[in-house]
Amino acid sequence: MMKGVVDRIEGNMVVVVLDDEQVVEININDFEDKVKEGDVVFKRCLKWAVDKEETLKRKKEVDKFLDLFED
C-alpha cells in the first residue's frame, strides 16, 4: 500500500513524502477527503484517502516530543 505524509499543498497539487522517502505530487482532486499539511494519506483503488487515526497518533507523538523542550 502506498502511504505517506502531506508535506505541503501548492495550488492544486499535494506534495506527499511516501514512507520510502520518495516525494510525489498528486492532484488534489485525487483525494476522497479534504487534505491538509501533516495528514497521513494512503492510496485506495483509484483515490487517495486521509488516515485520520494515524494522523492523530503521529500528531500526539510530535506534541509529546515538543513538550520535552518547553520547560
Protein architecture, described:
There is one protein chain. The chain is an alpha+beta fold and 71 residues long. The protein is 23% helix and 37% strand. It contains 1 helix and 5 strands; from the N terminus they run E-E-E-E-E-H. The protein has one helix at residues 52-67, and strands spanning 3-10, 13-18, 23-27, 40-43, 48-50. It has a 5-stranded antiparallel beta sheet. A hairpin with a 4-residue loop joins strand 2 and strand 3. It is elongated, with a radius of gyration of 13 Å.
| Backbone shape | elongated
Q: How are helices and strands ordered from N to C?
A: EEEEEH
The major sheet is characterized as: 5 strands, antiparallel
Name the poorly predicted regions: none
Decide which structural class fits the backbone.
alpha+beta
C-alpha Rg, in Å? Answer: 13 Å
Secondary structure tally: strands: 5
Mean pLDDT: 94
Concise synopsis of the structure shown:
It contains one helix and five strands. By secondary structure, the protein is α+β, with helices and mostly antiparallel strands.
